[in-house]
Amino acid sequence: MIITLHTLCGVFYTKSAMESYNILIEHLAAACDVAIFTGAGISAESGIATFRDPDGLWSKFNPTELASMKGFLRNPDRVWQWYNYRRAIIADAQPNAGHYALADFEKYIPNCTVITQNVDRLHQRAGTKNILELHGNIIENHCVICNSPYIQDIDIQSKELPFCSNCGGNIRPSVVWFGENLPDGIYEKAEYSAGHCDVFFSIGTSVEVYPAAYLPFTAKNRGAFCVEINPTSTSFTPYANIAIQEKSGDCLPRIVELLQQYLKREYNAE
Ligand code: APR
């Protein structure tokens, strides 16, 4: 059953859209476990470019050269400077209403897990506690030879590539590059969460990069009520119980507001 929601002039919803929100809120209010899978789209309203939108990073930069070990070994300075360019954008960015709304989910849902592909740590800055970072993060760094964490502060204005004090190797960002394994155990935890949740959200992701892209289908196959929030359709849209074709920063606060009202009405909860 696909109910695609469209906002009419921003705040007025079609009747079917309100009915669909009510169906979603009833599932959420009854849920013990909720898994929330996020991608670059949830940070778009914070001014951080996505990867595959028409104006996304991969329309301007070559991922093979900048997000792979091969590219790093071929030109470590260029890769290091590109990540400093992204770090500067992220340092200036603030979590948006979508990030804060997901942090609020943790107040109303017993077991809520955010599984993010993002490396910007905006979920954490918005207050989300229970989070799985599938693709590492752009804040931390480590040695490309001995893997020692590089704990010194990074000067994002500097073009100088730092070296490991332990073995002299190049320092690299602790993000997962194409062709690399995800951090030990993280995918297994994410897969368990997706496979045991009552409600699964897929938010702001093109569902194109594996193994992360298996997670929505794992949730669907295990019987979760699946909600996609994305202005454009993806390969998962036909499988979602509800597809909300809006920006996450617009609809997530609305979902939290409706959930608060429902819980107050039903359980006199604050
Ligand atoms: N709200 C919700 N969704 C949005 C918004 C928004 N405001 N703006 C854009 N989107 C959607 C786009 O329609 C697109 O489907 O977010 C999605 C972003 O897709 P990608 O750019 O492919 O990002 P993502 O799915 O996170 O990429 C996965 O690919 O390059 C690797 O490691 C990188 O983690 C990344 C992975």
Annotation keywords:
270 residues; disordered N terminus; alpha/beta; 11 strands; 9 helices; Rossmann fold; 2 domains; 36% helix
Your description of this structure?
The protein has 270 residues and is an alpha/beta fold. It has two domains: 1-47 and 95-135 and 182-270, Rossmann fold (3-Layer(aba) Sandwich); 49-92 and 137-175, 2-Layer Sandwich (SIR2/SIRT2 'Small Domain'), CATH 3.30.1600.10. It is built from nine helices and eleven strands. The protein has helices at residues 15-30, 63-66, 69-74, 76-92, 97-108, 122-126, 186-195, 214-221, 248-267, and strands at 3-5, 7-8, 12-13, 33-38, 111-116, 131-133, 136-143, 171-175, 199-203, 225-229, 242-244. The strands form three sheets. It has a seven-stranded parallel beta sheet with strand order 1-11-10-9-4-5-6, with helices on both faces. Strands 2-3 form a two-stranded antiparallel sheet. Strands 7-8 form a two-stranded antiparallel ribbon. Strand 5 (111-116), helix 6 and strand 6 (131-133) form a beta-alpha-beta unit. Helix 1 (15-30) packs across helix 9 (248-267) and helix 7 runs parallel beside helix 8 (214-221). The radius of gyration is 20 Å and the shape is elongated. It starts with a strand and ends with a helix. Bound molecules: adenosine-5-diphosphoribose. Adenosine-5-diphosphoribose is lined by residues 39-41, 44-45, 50-53, 56, 117, 135, 204-206, 208-209, 229-232, 234, 247-249.
